[in-house]
Design brief:
Shape: elongated
Largest sheet: 14 strands, antiparallel, barrel
Strand content: over 45%
Strand order of the largest sheet: 2-3-4-5-6-7-8-11-12-15-16-19-20-21
Radius of gyration: 24 Å
Number of helices: 2
Number of strands: 21
Structural class: mainly beta
Length: 424
């Protein structure tokens, strides 16, 4: 089965739909390209969220549900992402460019009481869309062709609840429900054969898990703050159904399969699709002025059926650092003094490895939060803009190096709902 894992990275050629979420050839493996699990403003800071408590009252932290003690407004966020990927391989000096745009986040959050906050959100979790054709001439003079194709998306709905035990210490719980379908098929044929041999895997996902979070923030002298945070995501408590079919057939016009003969068919259930992971973070800042933080994430490798064989992703980790700065949020004479400027970077040891070569990722991030109105910090509805420039993969062993420029935009509408009207 080794050839199934190497060929898509041999850069013979891959064709991808420009409007699908998954653009990378590495999306062919496992559950596809896993997307970021945070909002535009957090991503602009390198993804730091475990020890990130926003100083103002208009943001909800889903990544660490315990870090929401300052939320006092109902906040609605709608966000979109534009991915721009530039691929290169030393194999035949291949170069390619792929783009996609998609809705990446919808959330609503509001306080239930001064100590209890609630949030509900939707995000795409992972996606794959690839088509790889490999042809070769045999020593006998005939031809051989292998076509690898795959598609599908996993989405997630999240519900988070935070409780502030004391002014310094909070806890939180987030439930994560994953759903979707993933398809992979390898079709093999010879010029002297009338039939095609197809190996097809379908993974039907309906599974869920939970994330526990804690956050501690200590107020120091001169309005300085020290923040510590931790999260732990349990392994699956739901299930994934996998159906594998090995069959022969031929196509008639319209890509209709005919004369299908099943050689082998298997069905299995598994709970290892979404892995266990945990995160530790620390941050330091000045109230309403600036913040800097760092965190380490660890994710256990998962196993998924790929073309009839188990495909195991490796354990991975991510190191991130970043922060934000506001010149003067009460300066109404200068709009740009009330803009939040964000910066960050991260390095990720990936969960894919081929021929002893790890597929790692590095990126620099930045962004701004632009307030809509000329009001105080307690009414900071606005636009979040973010950019991510980075690299994934390597040119070693004829693999693919992926340079990317990702753009993100988010609209945040924050206000105090359900207020009682007062009359004289």
């Amino acid at each position: 089965m080794k050839r199934f894992f190497v060929l898509p990275l041999a850069a013979v050629g891959f064709l991808m739909n420009a409007q699908t979420i998954g653009n990378s050839p590495y999306a062919a493996f496992g559950i596809g390209d896993v997307k970021y699990d945070n909002t535009t403003d957090v991503n602009a800071m390198g993804g730091i969220s475990t020890a990130y408590i926003w100083d103002f009252n208009n943001n909800f932290n889903f990544s660490n549900p315990a870090a929401n003690k300052n939320l006092e407004l109902t906040t609605i966020k709608v966000e979109g992402t534009n991915e721009n990927n530039f691929f290169k391989s030393n194999y035949d000096d291949l170069k390619a460019t792929k783009h996609s745009s998609y809705l990446s986040n919808i959330t609503i959050a509001f306080p239930l009481s001064p100590k209890v906050k609630f949030g509900l959100g939707y995000q795409p979790y992972s996606s794959k869309k690839y088509s790889v054709l490999n042809t070769e001439t045999l020593s006998t003079g005939g031809g051989k062709a292998s076509l690898f194709t795959g598609e599908g998306t996993i989405s997630t709905v999240q519900a988070a609840l935070s409780y502030q035990i004391s002014p310094q210490f909070g806890v939180g719980l987030r439930s994560n429900f994953y759903f979707g379908n993933l398809y992979d098929i390898n079709e093999l044929t010879y010029s002297t054969a009338e039939l095609i041999n197809g190996y097809e895997t379908k993974n039907k996902i309906k599974t869920f898990n939970f994330t526990l979070g804690t956050a501690y923030q200590k107020v120091l002298e001169n309005d300085k703050k020290l923040t510590l945070g931790a999260t732990y995501t349990f392994g699956n408590t739901g299930q994934m159904e996998t159906r594998y079919v090995n069959s022969t057939y031929f196509y008639t016009p319209g890509q209709v399969k005919n004369n299908v003969s099943i050689i082998d068919e298997q069905t299995s259930e598994d709970k290892n699709l979404i892995p266990m992971e945990f995160s530790l973070g620390a941050g330091y800042g000045k109230d309403g002025k600036w913040f800097w933080g760092t965190q380490v994430d660890y994710k256990k490798g998962e196993t998924i059926q790929f073309l009839g064989q188990p495909f195991a992703n490796e354990n991975s980790y991510k190191i991130a650092a970043g922060g934000w700065y506001i010149p003067n949020y009460n300066n109404f004479r200068s709009y740009f003094s009330r803009v939040t400027y964000r910066y960050g970077a991260y390095y990720e040891k990936g969960n894919l490895s081929f021929m002893g070569t790890d597929i790692n990722k590095f990126a620099l991030t930045g962004g701004v939060s632009l307030p809509f109105e000329n009001k105080g910090a307690s009414r900071m509805s606005g636009i979040d803009l973010g950019i991510e420039l980075g690299k994934r993969g390597t040119l070693d062993n004829n693999m693919v190096r992926q340079n990317f420029v990702n753009l993100r935009i988010g609209l945040n509408f924050a206000d105090k709902w359900f207020r009682k009207t007062l009359y004289d």
